[in-house]
Amino acid sequence: MDLDYGPQYDAFRAEIRAFINAHRHLAPPSATRFSRPSAEAIRWQKLLIEHGYTARTIPAEYGGYGAAPDILKSRIIAEEFSRARLPSGLANQGISMLVPTLLELGTDEQKRRWIAATLTGEVVWCQGYSEPGAGSDLANLKTSARIENGEFVINGQKIWTSTAKQADMIFCLVRTDSRPRSIAVSLI
Ligand SMILES: Cc1cc2nc3c(=O)[nH]c(=O)nc-3n(C[C@H](O)[C@H](O)[C@H](O)COP(=O)(O)OP(=O)(O)OC[C@H]3O[C@@H](n4cnc5c(N)ncnc54)[C@H](O)[C@@H]3O)c2cc1C
Fold it and tell me: What residues have CB less than 8 Å from 49, skipping those under 6 apart?
C-alpha cells in the first residue's frame, strides 16, 4: 500500500508553508474563549478565506472559498497550521452549526445576508437549544413561535446559552406546531 500523499498534495503542502512564512507576522494571538474576535483576528480570518485555508468548501457566492471537498487537503491545512502553531481560522457555533444549516435549508436571501458575515466573525451567534426540562432531550422543548404580521413571536425560555453576552444574534430551536416533529430553527 502506498501511503505517500503524492506530488499534487506535496505541492499543496509547500504552498501552505510558503503562505505561512510570508504571513505569520499577521496572525493574531490565540483568542480567549468566549470573546468576540478582535479586529486582528477578523483580518486574519479574511486572509485565510481568501487563500482557501478556512471556509474552504463554502460556496464563494456566500463568502467562502468555493473549493471542492478534499479530505487530504483539509488534513494538510490542519497539519501545517498546527505545526506552525498558528490559528487556522475562527471556530464558533455560528460557523460550525448555523452556517451548515443555512446552506442546507436557508433561503438565498438568508444565505447572502448571514453566511459571509458569520464566516468573517463580524456577526457572532449564540445557540439557543437547551431549556429547563429540555437538555439532552431536545424533543421535549417547549419554546413556541407563531407568525404574526410576517414576524415570529417567540415565547419560552432558553438556558446554558454560551457567548450570549458577546453575541449579536441567536439561532434557536422553537416549536411552530404542537404536533411532534415540527421544530424550526429561528434566527433572532
Ligand atoms: C459549558 C456548557 C455550555 C453549554 N452551552 C450551550 C449553548 O450554548 N446552547 C445550548 O443550547 N446548550 C448549551 N449547553 C447545554 C448542553 O448542550 C446540554 O444540553 C445540557 O448540558 C444537558 O442538559 P441538562 O443539563 O438538562 O442535563 P439532562 O439532559 O437532564 O441530563 C442529565 C443526566 O441524564 C443523562 N441522560 C439524559 N438523557 C438520558 C437518556 N435518554 N438515557 C440515559 N441517560 C440520560 C445525561 O447523560 C446526564 O448525565 C451547554 C452546557 C454546558 C455544560
Answer: 55, 63, 64, 65, 89, 119, 120
Question: In which residue ranges of the chain is CATH 2.40.110.10 found?
Answer: 125-187
| CATH C-level class of 125-187 | mainly beta
pLDDT tens digits, 133-148: 899 998 899 999 999 9
In the Cβ-directed half-sphere of 105, how many Cα atoms lie within 13 Å?
8
Q: Which atom of ligand 1 is nearest to the CA of 162?
A: 8
For residue 46, give the amino acid letter: K
What atom of ligand 1 comes closest to residue 134's alpha carbon? 26
* Nearest alpha carbon, ligand 1 atom 51: 160
Q: pTM, whole model, 2 decimals?
A: 0.88
Q: What angle do CA 183, 128, 150 make, to 5 degrees?
A: 60
Q: Is 51 exposed, middle or buried (0-12, 13-18, 19+ CB in 10 A)?
A: middle
CB contact at 8 A, 63 and 94: no
